[in-house]
């Protein structure tokens, strides 16, 4: 995915004004030619976008905002969430929109007001009128700002628990695991945070390759607005497994897929990690009854992948699913069944031969028959320096950590509770090639919900995922969010030499 980059001026006054909507942790500096390593500074501005939570009138949505305490931040700043507008463009005009409109705009009351760093803030909304949200934060609120959106739908299409971590705007997104099959209702939600319109193209790839569509190009998303696009309006073909590629011709957007099933629940499908030769898909629930891997390679060459499961005692190869052949430009799927067998697990994909870039995601089912629920786990980036997860509870939260290549030590901190409680910290060592459902700390005297931050201490890369569970009437509702870097820090080159030049 194309990441928004920072333009850094070589002087001290310019460094003080650095802003970042999506600043990720780069690799450490190396090489004799670089006199000084880059300094890590907190980002001074960031933005997040939350899609409209539901089309259901009986949906109940909760929001949690949290900023970790970060050394070196400004004393001031603020964080705000504003409702996006949504137009009623209809599906008959060829735009691919849902034809439904939602209330929104600057006059709509936001669901919450963020609190000081270190303390979560919560809010809620109900029904089908809850809009998409556009958020901005600066100063001490910006580094690692995280907003979680969790929705409970009691009945109907997509019933169960649906969750998504609100994400920065970008210009390219991959969504393997979507569908236009009978019984599925999948929307791509596009949200534009900027003052000018964005123009977006959507490409669909099925088992036989690219799917032609006359209405998937040049979709306009108005400024400060959100547009839900129903995938089944883009094509007449009914595909069980689709890869959706969203690219932005002008501007930038936030994008997420809401994947809903008439009988099997549903969840948000977050963007998968950039195409890469090796991928990690962490946090498969140990009681998963069915796991389906969906993969796609955008290049000109086929990909052959080794499939391995990182379990608590080491890495194993699933019987009957040792490898996966992914044809170029075609979506490929493999049923892995109850692959975790009551143990924590994460899927690791590596090249069987030559490395070919691939995107991938898992569709995960818990329960059986009428009492089943679905969630999605996309391939993700590692935790990096720090990752943050909001909206955790004393019961119903599972934190899974995996170290695919080398043993690693991580520090996990539970924040204060949204309504009271003191922070707590634990340190864990994750052995190479394993996944552990760790006993995450809980704030002492907890009232309300809390946030978890995961910080890399030493060793190899760590990947993580958080599962929220809430069983209702025997149906095991759940949602999984992966834990890539929270974008709290940005590496800035030392400016000593440039300042010396400016002074001459």
What's the layout of helices and strands?
Blueprint: H1 12-15, E1 39-42, E2 45-50, E3 60-66, E4 79-83, E5 85-86, E6 121-126, E7 133-138, E8 146-153, E9 160-165, E10 172-178, E11 184-192, E12 198-206, E13 209-211, E14 219-221, E15 225-230, E16 242-250, E17 254-261, E18 265-269, E19 279-284, E20 290-296, E21 303-311, E22 314-316, E23 323-326, E24 332-337, E25 345-351, E26 359-368, E27 371-378, E28 386-392, E29 397-403, E30 408-414, E31 420-422, E32 424-430, E33 434-438, E34 444-447, E35 450-459, E36 463-472, E37 475-482, E38 489-492, H2 496-503
Parallel strand pairs: 5-15
Antiparallel strand pairs: 1-38, 2-7, 3-6, 3-8, 4-7, 8-9, 10-16, 11-15, 11-17, 12-13, 12-14, 12-16, 17-18, 19-25, 20-24, 20-26, 21-22, 21-23, 21-25, 26-27, 28-35, 29-33, 29-36, 30-32, 30-35, 31-34, 36-37
Task: Give a verbal description of the structure.
By secondary structure, the protein is mostly beta strands. The protein has two helices and 38 strands. The protein has a five-stranded mixed β-sheet with strand order 5-15-11-17-18, with no helix packed on it. Strands 10, 12, 13, 14 and 16 form a five-stranded antiparallel β-sheet that branches. The longest helix is centred in the C-terminal third of the chain and has 8 residues. The protein is globular and about 55 Å long.
- Count every beta strand, where a strand is a DSSP E run of 2 or more residues: 38
Spatial sequence of strands, sheet with the most strands: 5-15-11-17-18
Q: Gyration radius, to the nearest Å?
A: 22 Å
**Count of runs of 4 or more consecutive helical residues:** 2
**Spans with pLDDT under 50 lasting ≥5 residues?**
1-35, 88-102, 499-504
First-last Cα distance: 41 Å
- Measured as a percent range, the helix fraction is under 10%
Structural class based on helices, strands and sheet pairing = mainly beta
Mean pLDDT: 88
Strand residue content = over 45%
Shape descriptor = globular
Question: How many strands, which pairing sense, and closed or not: the largest β-sheet?
Answer: 5 strands, mixed
């Amino acid at each position: 995915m194309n990441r928004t980059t920072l333009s850094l001026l070589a002087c001290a006054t310019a460094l003080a004004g650095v802003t970042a909507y999506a600043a990720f942790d780069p690799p450490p500096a190396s090489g004799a030619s670089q006199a000084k390593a880059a300094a890590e500074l907190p980002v001074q501005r960031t933005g997040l976008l939350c899609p409209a939570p539901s089309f259901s009138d009986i949906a109940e949505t909760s929001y949690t905002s949290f900023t970790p305490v970060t050394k070196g931040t400004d004393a001031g700043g603020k964080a705000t969430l504003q409702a996006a507008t949504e137009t009623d463009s209809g599906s008959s005009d060829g735009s691919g929109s849902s034809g439904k409109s939602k209330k929104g705009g600057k006059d709509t009351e936001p669901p919450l007001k963020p609190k000081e760093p270190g303390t979560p803030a919560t809010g809620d909304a109900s029904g089908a009128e809850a809009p998409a949200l556009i958020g901005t934060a600066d100063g001490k609120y910006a580094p690692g700002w995280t907003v979680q959106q969790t929705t409970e739908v009691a009945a109907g299409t997509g019933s169960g628990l649906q969750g998504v971590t609100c994400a920065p705007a970008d210009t390219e997104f991959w969504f393997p695991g979507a569908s236009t099959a009978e019984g599925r209702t999948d929307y791509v939600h596009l949200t534009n945070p900027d003052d000018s319109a964005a123009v977006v193209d959507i490409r669909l790839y099925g088992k036989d390759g690219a799917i032609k569509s006359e209405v998937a190009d040049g979709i306009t998303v108005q400024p400060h607005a959100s547009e839900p696009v129903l995938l089944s309006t883009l094509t007449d073909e009914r595909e069980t497994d689709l890869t959706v590629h969203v690219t932005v011709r002008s501007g930038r957007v936030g994008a997420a897929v809401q994947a809903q099933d008439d009988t099997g629940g549903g969840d948000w499908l977050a963007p998968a990690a950039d195409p890469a030769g090796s991928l990690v898909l962490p946090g498969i629930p140990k009681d998963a009854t069915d796991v389906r891997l969906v993969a796609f390679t955008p290049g000109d060459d086929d990909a052959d992948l080794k499939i391995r499961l990182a379990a608590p005692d080491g890495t194993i190869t699933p019987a009957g699913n040792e490898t996966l052949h992914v044809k170029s430009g075609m979506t490929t799927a493999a049923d892995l069944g109850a692959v975790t067998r009551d143990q924590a697990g994460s899927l690791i994909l590596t090249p069987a031969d030559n490395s070919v870039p691939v995107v991938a995601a898992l569709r995960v089912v818990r329960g059986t028959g009428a009492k089943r629920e679905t969630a999605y786990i996309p391939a993700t980036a590692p935790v990096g320096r720090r990752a943050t997860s909001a909206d955790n509870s004393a019961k119903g939260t599972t934190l899974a950590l995996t170290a695919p290549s080398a043993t690693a030590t991580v520090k996990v901190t539970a924040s204060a509770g949204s309504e009271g409680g003191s922070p707590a910290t634990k340190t864990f060592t994750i052995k190479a090639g394993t996944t552990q459902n760790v006993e995450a700390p809980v704030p002492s005297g907890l009232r309300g919900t809390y946030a978890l931050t995961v910080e890399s201490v030493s060793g190899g890369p760590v990947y993580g995922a958080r599962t929220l569970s809430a069983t209702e009437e025997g149906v095991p509702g759940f949602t999984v969010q992966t834990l890539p870097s929270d974008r709290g820090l940005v590496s800035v080159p030392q400016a000593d030499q440039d300042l010396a030049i400016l002074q001459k």
